[in-house]
Amino acid sequence: MTTPRLDVRGVEHSYGTQQVLRGVDLSVEPGEVLALMGESGSGKTTLGRIVAGFEAPAAGSVALDGEVVADGRTFVAPESRHVGVVPQEGALFPHLSVAGNVAFGLPRGPARSARVEECLELVGLGGFGERRPHELSGGQQQRVALARALAPSPRLVVLDEPFSALDASLRAEVGEQVAAALSAAGATALLITHDAGEAFRSADRVAVLAGGRVVQTGRPVDLYDRPRTAEVAAAAGWVLKLPARREGGALSTPLGPVGLEQVGYDSGVEQGDLLVRPGHVVVEPADGAAVEVVSVRSFTEHVGLRVRLADGAELVVPAPRRSTTDLRPGDRVEVRLAGAAAFLAG
Ligand code: ADP
Fold first, then answer.
1. What φ, ψ does residue 233 adopt, rounded to 5°?
2. What is the Cα–Cα distance from 35 to 41, expressed in whole angstroms?
3. Whose CA is nearest to atom 14 of ligand 1?
4. pLDDT at 236
5. What SS3 class is residue 197?
6. Which residue of 42, 149, 263, 270 is most buried, as measured by CB atoms within 10 A?
7. What's the rounded Cα separation, in Å, for the pair 296 and 62?
């Protein structure tokens, strides 16, 4: 097994009587971008600060390349950790040029200006060195902040909500540029974000922080297909919650049974919520069937199909668009489940 670039074990932290981190375990492999996702106030920034060395953990340990930089006995100062930080708003030095900002953490010497230009190229801002920060857009400023963090070739870059100050319309584009720059630099990164879309777009793996712990870590597709909590499931995309009960090797639901082997994550409860993705729903027109179409709302490649079940209950079922294009209110359909993402305690 390779040594992780970053290894966080059992980290705890409190502010006064409020315990924010309750035993966080997290590791990032060399060259990997790991998104740390969680609701506002879940402790993401606190963990980022502990990793960068701006804060000492109350318990647990932080290691970089196998070297302990923080635990009960050791505390390595931030400047000796070789961790680059991109704060929420780039915090560029306004009186320095772009090149001056990027050069800030680099030793003086003949290679300095070449390294500055190389890093500006990496973030797609080659030739911008002479400009002043105020002559750049918000997205460009964030890319300069990333170039500045990458310039000294840090072991790890911590990006704390790097796009939160940008307009929503820009976020996806700048996010892609930043992800491309991190990958071109071969950088290892911890990307802190409350925005699931950002996490899923930009990261190789996503760790979800909730209740002071990492509740799940996995590739975006794993979190989509096998979420371990309802929050993770919802963060990863559209999900329908159905009451379900275990009956032998299957689960019974208002939309009929589904085999347990078709369920991504089974928490083991007898009775609870089945979390269903649009791809799990099979809809077929069938004259005389008990289920009636109430309305069809079209979004993207999925539609919200409101149906009335035989017992009169109504349900909005997420369904693939192709199976529902021709449906009209009043049509009769058969609705079946071909699987589910998770079966969790309700
Ligand atoms: P996140 O980044 O996930 O939004 P934070 O790590 O910033 O979460 O904060 C977690 C919790 O700790 C919040 O309830 C916040 O109010 C509290 N907190 C953060 N920093 C401080 C501080 N310096 N002093 C006191 N409480 C703090």
1. -60, -45
2. 16
3. 41
4. 86
5. helix
6. 149
7. 51
